[in-house]
Amino acid sequence: METIVTVKETFNCSLERAFKTPILGDATAFLVGYGVIPAVVKFTDDDTWGQVGGQRIPHSGKSLLSKGEAVGLDEIYVREENKYWQWGVAEFYQSSMGFTEFKGEMFFEEKQENSVDVRWTYTLYSNSLIAYPFHWFFGQVFWKGQMKIAIQKMKAYAESDAPFLYK
Hints:
Blueprint: E1 2-11, H1 15-24, E2 40-44, E3 55-60, E4 72-80, E5 84-92, E6 99-112, E7 115-126, H2 132-158
Antiparallel strand pairs: 1-7, 2-3, 3-4, 4-5, 5-6, 6-7
Helix pairs in contact: 1-2
């Protein structure tokens, strides 16, 4: 079963900067938490992050759902320069509430110089028909709420001179 969540924003910067910011920028500045979803406070084992097959381990802050430790293993599946990213959390280190995988995708379309439409989609996977209403609610309320905040913070980061942490 799938729950699909999408948010959109226009970044007022170069296509290259819009493309690099979400994955190569400081994601702790974007993933600040929302409701029951804790903030991501750091990443470890991230030497290969930014390239296809690259991995990193996000660590969350403490919350009702998290002890404040490693969350899972992120991996980049696809990188199409200045067009598309696909990554996923296929291995969870904390309770996944019955989810089996989270897959993120970002699409970039330059409308005019320094105006880039960004579409961010997350697909939350589950094998439980019984838990699906909860999963749908979690995705549409909490996950989407986090994504709305995060894409605004990505936009601000992209429109600034903030450095990228990865290549």
